[in-house]
Amino acid sequence: MAPPQRTVRVVIQGRVQGVWYRGWAVATARALGLRGWVRNRRDGSVEAVFSGLASDVEAMLSHCHQGPPAAKVEAVTAETWSGPAGPDFRQLPGE
């Protein structure tokens, strides 16, 4: 039986723009073997979709609460996502 898969859309709030959060997210998600994307939002938050093994997605969500050293994460909100995740993990232009 195949291990369980999970796809989530996440919004990270706090001081998360201008602190290399997106670059950190790309490196961390790729290291975990996840698919999806990350981008800045107009409201100052960062939005991401993480897709892969449920245990790896959970690990990424845990990492998102800390982020890179210069970030100050105030909230991480995750919801199940049924949209496309893509073939790899990439940074998208801001919305």
Mind sketching the topology for me?
Elements: E1 5-15, H1 21-31, E2 35-40, E3 46-53, H2 54-64, E4 72-80, E5 89-91
Parallel strand pairs: 2-5
Antiparallel strand pairs: 1-3, 1-4, 2-3
Name the features.
single chain; about 100 residues; alpha+beta; Alpha-Beta Plaits; five-stranded mixed sheet; 2 helices; 5 strands; about 40% strand; globular
Q: How much of the polypeptide forms β-strand, as a percent range?
A: 35-45%
User: What gross morphology would you assign?
Assistant: globular
The run of helices and strands is EHEEHEE
- Walk across the major sheet and give the strand order: 4-1-3-2-5
Oligomer: single chain
CATH architectural grouping of the domain at 17-74: 2-Layer Sandwich
Count of helix runs: 2
Distance between the termini: 39 Å
Report the top-level CATH class of the domain at 17-74: Alpha Beta
DSSP helix fraction: 10-25%
**Computed structural class:** alpha+beta
**CATH topology name of the domain at 17-74:** Alpha-Beta Plaits
- The poorly predicted ranges are none
Rg over CA atoms:
12 Å
Please summarize the sheet with the most strands. Answer: 5 strands, mixed
Count of distinct strands: 5
How much is the average pLDDT? 96
